[in-house]
């Protein structure tokens, strides 16, 4: 049978005599009397001993430094989106094959269900999207908060499409084409969606989910943020 574990505090009881002598000397050094020592054996003295115990317990504890999180997003630049004159019919553009020369390999079912029936009015004036690199893994809510809220992050399907047209076959540009998603936030029917497009060497893939069911994004992904320009009435 092994030896039972012995508390370090209990083990210290063998030092009680010398600790008590040091305590009495300390009280005397600070002008205390025998009555002050005897008073420790009263309810009032219990409070005093409790404070002494707290001081002893905390004496060698170092202050814990707050955890410094890595910044969430790094601004990489802007991408210009021209104004448009025609309504943007999502289903006419985001479909497998080539539309406007943009190679589309997969439109996932969640995108078709949530976005397939959307028709946007023309963008009334040119806009600039800001785009960022995600520096650590995170879900939608902290990203949206970091970018000053839902009204700021919202953009349009037409803006995604104009961006895709600049990289029709996955060439270099503002959209990430090397093993990572490009995230856009678009409101459909009052629900904010996280719409993502990514290149898979055969074409662009598109998918979408409500931010009410947050997606966990990997570090290195790109986030595109709008500037709340309204659509034409």
- Give the strand line-up of the largest sheet: 1-6-10-7-8-9-4-3
Number of strands: 10
Q: Count up the domains.
A: 2
How would a crystallographer describe the biggest sheet? 8 strands, mixed
**Could you give the order of the helices and strands?**
HHHHEEHEEHEEHHHEEEE
Shape, per Cα inertia axes: rod-shaped
Rg from alpha-carbon coordinates: 32 Å
| Beta strand % | 15-25%
Overall pLDDT level: 83
Distance between the termini: 84 Å
Provide a count of the helices. Answer: 9
Q: Helical residue percent? A: 25-40%
The residue ranges in which pLDDT falls below 50 over 5 or more consecutive positions are: 228-233
Structural category: alpha+beta
Give the helices and strands, then pairings.
Layout: H1 8-11, H2 16-29, H3 34-38, H4 43-58, E1 73-81, E2 88-89, H5 90-93, E3 97-99, E4 102-107, H6 109-115, E5 119-120, E6 127-134, H7 140-146, H8 150-153, H9 157-165, E7 182-188, E8 191-199, E9 204-210, E10 222-225
Parallel strand pairs: 4-9, 7-10
Antiparallel strand pairs: 1-6, 2-5, 3-4, 6-10, 7-8, 8-9
């Amino acid at each position: 049978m092994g030896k039972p574990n012995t508390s370090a505090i209990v083990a210290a009881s063998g030092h009680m005599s010398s600790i008590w002598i040091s305590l009495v000397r300390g009280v005397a050094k600070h002008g205390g009397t025998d009555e002050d020592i005897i008073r420790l054996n009263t309810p009032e003295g219990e409070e005093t001993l409790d404070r002494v115990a707290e001081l002893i317990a905390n004496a060698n504890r170092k202050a814990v430094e707050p955890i410094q999180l890595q910044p969430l997003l790094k601004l990489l630049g802007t991408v210009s989106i021209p104004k448009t004159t025609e309504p943007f019919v999502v289903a006419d553009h985001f479909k497998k094959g080539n539309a406007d020369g943009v190679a589309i390999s997969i439109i996932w079912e969640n995108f078709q269900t949530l976005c397939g029936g959307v028709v946007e009015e023309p963008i009334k004036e040119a806009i600039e999207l800001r785009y960022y690199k995600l520096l650590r893994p995170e879900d939608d809510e902290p990203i949206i908060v970091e970018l000053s809220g839902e009204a700021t992050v919202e953009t349009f399907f037409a803006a995604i499409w104009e961006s895709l047209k600049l990289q029709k076959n996955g060439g270099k540009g503002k959209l990430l084409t090397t093993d990572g998603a490009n995230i856009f936030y678009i409101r459909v029917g009052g629900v904010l969606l996280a719409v993502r497009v990514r290149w898979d060497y055969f074409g662009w893939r598109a998918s979408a989910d409500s931010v009410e069911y947050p997606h966990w994004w990997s570090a290195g992904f790109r986030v595109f943020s709008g500037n709340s320009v309204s659509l034409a009435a």
